[in-house]
Amino acid sequence: MNTNAQKKLILQVEPQKIAYIIQNRITNEVLHFNQYTIDPYREIDNELDKMMSQDELLQTDFEEVELLHNNTLNTIVPNEFYKEEALGNYLQFTIKVFPTDYFASDEISPLQAHNVYVPYVNFNNYFLDKFGAFEYKHIYTPLLEYTFAHSMKDVQKFWLYKAQNSCVIIIYKQQHLAFINAFEIESKEDLLYYILFVMEQMQIDPSQQIIHAIGDLEEKDNYYELLFDYIKTIELPNYDILAKQFNCSKEILKNYYTLLHT
User: What is the DSSP letter of 210?
Assistant: First the structure.
């Protein structure tokens, strides 16, 4: 059996960092994980060449390659308002766009919507040259697909995805996306503020709402304990079970939850 035919490479890219896993396409087992810090003062192609040369497993063949663009340069557009020729128009209401920007979109069929975003073209071009055709998405696309799939039986569901110094809040009501936004956080008080602010705007009672948290929030850490003073029910994944399922560490799961659930 050709073992390369079972291998999938998934890369999560941002301007100064890349994280990637090699995964068994059949079992979802993580065969290899690594991350690489990019020097912003060097040419991106040189930095990526260095990363590729340092990890011999990246020099093998893959049956499938997928790239996740990790940024907040995006917006969600319902299908009824979506036109492929107007991608830049949607984004100009949420971010500053330039004439030279390239725009892309991911269809999210379960939500009947598109995720419109600005991809990192330099990463796309480099990996296209290295691997040939591959699929790329915005990181919120698999996040929305995952959270929606686990919200279909709920009248209302509140999701918190925390990853280092940022968080994403997603709310579903009656199996429809009611809210999604990302926030930069520097402290546990920032996280609490944004959660309570969103709940107030969405007319949600903190004492009654369960928060379904994924990412690097964990029970009894400072962030969790502060949230628990205001929100009595915070549900976390069973990272022990998931770590065995994916054959990886709990730290990888917490810091790269979306990468593993693509």
Answer: P
